[in-house]
Amino acid sequence: MKEPARAVREDLAGIRALTLLRAPFLGLLLGRMRILLNGKIDTICATTAGEVIVNPFFWEGLPDIEARTFVLLHEALHLGFRHPWLARGRNRALYNLAADMVVNEMLFRHGYTAAPPPAVTAEVVHGLLRAQGVRVELEEVRRASVEEIYRLLTSAAARAARAPEEGKTGDLRELERDREGEVVQEGGCGAGERPERYWEAAVSRALVAAREAGLLPADLARQAEVSLRPRVDWRRALRACLQEGVGRSVVGTWQRPSRRYPVLPGVKRLGVRSVWALVDCSGSIGEELLGRFLSEIHALARHHGCLLHVLPWDARAYPPVRALSPAQVRAAARGLRGGGGTVLRPALEALLGKMRPADIVVVFSDGHIADLQDAATLALYRRVAARAAQTLFVTAGRAPRLPRTPVISI
User: Fold this and answer.
1) What is the pTM assigned to this prediction?
2) Could you give the percent of the chain with pLDDT greater than 90?
3) Which one of 42, 143, 246, 323 counts the least CB within 10 Å of its CB?
């Protein structure tokens, strides 16, 4: 009988060779992993040290080489898409669930189907969401990103007034030091190199090589490019967009001729009368995130001398809330809970009856809006955008395409 380390090394050599021929992008990521054997963990995990740790008895218990290939590629995608690091500051159990589903569905689409049970699939997540009253279509779950699934799961946990225990973290582990185990594949970052940056570089090189080989599926390319995209400070982006809207509120005046061209009228800045925050209160966005958004909007409105009106909506529009102070903003965040369903048209109709020309309109939602592409809703949205000095869409999930509207992701 072969010793465990030798048997795993032989399996790895065959898996790497076949994967490089079949899916170069995945094969290149697989070859960049440092893999250790350690019997103290339950199964297999990807760590914030940028490594994969495998229990040799778990490996031996997998039924065939296809199952072993699946679990290794699963962990390679976790590292390539930086899931161990992105899980920091989140409910790790929920984030792990979301990341597992997205990675598994991606592997399924490319013919890797030998996921050892119990595998997290779109059907499993869809069932969990439906059980807690989160209404979303199965195909929408299947196409969603990790961030979108995490938001939905967080919403479902909030509705159930409980969340999975943080200790049950799945296969994304916070392990930086005191790593033990026998190395069965060399790789990983060198001394002084940050593991997350190492994996960013690994994904970039794998993308180039797979494109040159002509074997890079579109969904893998899209997800890899998203993972490499610089993370934008949403507060800074919101400030810039709001400043742009304020700058559009000007008129010509002969009371102050142009300093550069005295024969022409000068410019008088009117200022924005109001900022309208249309806040999705369907329950899919947590109170803490609502509070952060409203506090930022309040601070910006105050800085520019504008009045802030919060217009809550879900399947219908609710009475606007005037937010004159940070305390009122926090109270508004606690009170924004509607009856479920997410339809934008009633909120747009209510807004058109209240807003004035040159107001700024900011829509805050998770982007899962049932009527967002309906012709009648888009017609109303265009009327709002034409009247406003600026329209913005701030999303905690899906990023929709809307006319004349910058989209900012939180």
Assistant:
1) 0.63
2) 36
3) 42
Q: Are 400 and 385 in contact (CB under 8 A)?
A: no
- Mapped onto helix, strand or coil, the DSSP state of residue 172 is strand
As given in the structure block, the two tokens for residue 164 are 């999975």
- Tokens 């994304």: give the residue: 172
Res 217 pLDDT > 80: no
| Rounded percentage of the chain residues whose pLDDT exceeds 70 | 80
- Cα–Cα dist 95/101, whole Å: 10
Which of 129, 79, 78, 137 lies closest to 104 in space, CA to CA? 78
CA distances to 259, 278, 306, 400 from 393, rounded to whole Å, are 37, 9, 19, 8
Burial string for 367-379 (b: 16+ CB within 10 Å, else e) reads bbbebbeeeebbe
- Per-residue burial over 43-67, b if 16 or more Cβ lie within 10 Å, else e, is bbbbbbbbbbbbbbebbeebeeeeb
Q: Is residue 338 scored above 60 in pLDDT?
A: no
Burial class (CB in 10 A: 0-12, 13-18, 19+), 327: exposed
Q: Which residue has the higher pLDDT, 336 or 362?
A: 362
* pLDDT value at residue 335: 60
How far, in Å, CA of 119 to CA of 140, rounded? 19
Tokens at 259, concatenated: 């300093």
Cα separation, 11 vs 23, whole angstroms:
17
Q: What confidence tier does 167 reach under pLDDT thresholds 50, 70, 90?
A: very low
The DSSP symbol for 231 reads P
Task: Assign 60 a pLDDT band (cuts: 50, 70, 90).
Answer: very high
pLDDT of 356 > 80? The answer is yes
The amino acid at residue 57 is: F
pLDDT on residue 1 = 45
DSSP code at position 167 = T
User: What is the Cα–Cα distance from 344 to 331, expressed in whole angstroms?
Assistant: 23
Q: Which amino acid is at 279?
A: V
The DSSP result for 74-142, as a single string, is: HHHHHHHTTHHHHTTTS-HHHHHHHHHHHHHHHHHHTT---PPSS---HHHHHHHHHHTT----HHHHH
